[in-house]
Write a structure and sequence with these properties.
The protein has 225 residues and is of the alpha/beta class. The chain is built from eight helices and eleven strands. It starts with a strand and ends in a 9-residue tail after the last strand. Bound molecules: calcium ion (CA).
Length: 225
Amino acid sequence: MRLLVVEDDPDLNRQLVTAFTEAGYAVDKASDGEEGHFLGDTEPYDAVVLDLGLPVLDGVSVLEKWRRAGRKMPVLILTARDRWSDKVAGFDAGADDYVAKPFHMEEVLARIRALVRRSAGHASSEIACGPLLLDTAGARVTVDGRAIKLTSLEFRLLSYLMHHKGKVVSRTELVEHLYDQDFDRDSNTIEVFVGRLRKKLGVDVLHTVRGMGYCVTEPEEAGKG
Ligand code: CA
């Protein structure tokens, strides 16, 4: 899962990026509206945190431009505490949720988790696939109740596939959602990560669809198509 943080306050920007990175996300950041708009317009994000008061181009304008261009990623806006009219303008521009400043980081993390899973079609914070369970709230993976220790990249990979359970995800799509923009990307490494992940999980849920990509499905459905 890959996020974009658009916030001009350098301390707050850093805090958000650190918190999301520690929670297992790939994170890109921007400190003004123009840069933020460009990234959101050209890179695929699973969710965006967008401050409304931004230099160069304000947050509401950034959001309006994304939505007009058909960009559908979930967007959480950051608003000033007493500015109810900002919230209204933000929602009308296409925001999905908001947090008023100052906020608790835990709340932002929880709201982003909810937006990411909702947009992937999951109502519950736990996503199951046979014996495999992804607890999105605790960033934990278990197989038959046994905790599986994963590196952050392995977790990101599995989390993306679990959120899109039953769908074939191409290597290109995986690369785009696992790494931030500064990372030296190589889609060949995905195969290596998938291999390691299979070994660690020890259950037959992560399938290679030849020439297409990867798909997480219940073990008994394996080989059906
Ligand atoms: Ca600001």
